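ok so i was messing around last nite and threw this chain in just to see what happens. nothing serious, just curious
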Amino acid sequence: MSIVLLVIISPTHTDANASLHLNKEPLEKVHIQKVQLYDELKSTNKGKRLFFDHKKLNLSGLTLLSLLADLGIREHPILTHHEMADIDATDEALTLELYHIASQSYGNQLKSAANKPADFRAALINDTLPAYIDSAMPQFNAVIRLRQAINKYKRIKNIAWPALSDTFNPQLGQGHAEVKILRKKLVTLNDLQTASTSKHRLHIFDQSIINGLKHFQRRNGLKPTGRLNPKTQNALNQNIHTRINKLQVNLWRWLSLPRIPPTKYIMVNIPAFDLALIDKGVPVMDMKVIVGKPSNQTPIMITEVNSVTLNPTWTPTRNIINKDLLPLHNKNNTALKSLNFYLAKGYGSNTLYREVPPNLQEMLKQYRLVQQPGSNNALGNVRFNIKNNNAIFLHDTPTKYLFKQHNRALSHGCIRLEKPDDLLTTLRIKHRKNNSVTKHLRLQESLPVFITYQTAWIDNLGKINWRNDLYNKDK
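result:
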């Protein structure tokens, strides 16, 4: 049982950033380094195996196997006969898997501190290895709930899951053989109570099933129509094994966050089109957001809000100019002027300004295109500046009607906020909207921001939520 095999089968290794430098160094060298690491840790443990007492798994071993099974590294939290036959090799492999998990750090912009060998050694010296294993996963309540959901679904993974046929489109009061299949799916997934109908009416498409379908649709990010439309049918046909895998993929994603949550932070979930402000583990504010479309994806990152710009100007990127603004200008060369765009050259007191001319494309070789503050400014009345290298902001928007749309992957990558004033209030910033003067305010204390990609999570009510894999990252 080699550690190279363990690393390859780890679900995160579809992501080059997840590897322990396997792409930078020869495999033989990496293997030697890992063997040396194990020998050092075993030496710290007074030459004893880390996860076995005599020939039986100790508490640390049982705790680690449970974590490995939840992450999908192994199918069961039980060692095979082959692994038990060579417990020295198994102890080494388990040690390196734990170190690999605890060392994960994908933080974009602000990297979460990676685990160090000294942390592992301290747990051995202080006899706190089980607690160290638990701390390998970020200590968010959502992580605990996700692990519970994985084990709940594993208990029903072998249940029969026949697919609903494409021609099955029941009407209220209609009897159909497939209604029993639909009813069983909704009951299994906790969207319908088992005692909601009599045995004699199990095949009838009644109001209880419509209510169950609405509940299922809400949890899956679908419009709660109560109708068995194609999207709902596809979601219902998704088998339990597929859902377990999706839960495990999302559990791995939590490893990108700090192991200890900040007291207060912003969490953006891209596939859910949602932003929450968390204070002491409790959501205190929630709002809809608009994120980047698949062709202009909002990047996953760990960052922070460090300043706010009131009445911002907007300098569009070259990509936005070429794809959107130049075609608009070429169609109507007064359109950009009516939207309060101008050309600027230089900075500060040396800035030169001029109106947008008909030959805009030629002038952009010397000038930059800027939109003045105002009611139609693309950034609205406020921009929340976050540290990043992708020109991504959280900001207001003049197109409020777009928040009524179900699919809100509509931006060029920035995150548009439904209720920016609520966030301003939280940051204790007052804003006079009739004032058009641009003002930059640096926060006394930065607020952490986690822009995440969660296609499955468990809410505070214990309900499992699923969302469409917007950017095809689950695969």
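not much to say yet. The chain is about 35% helix and 15% strand.
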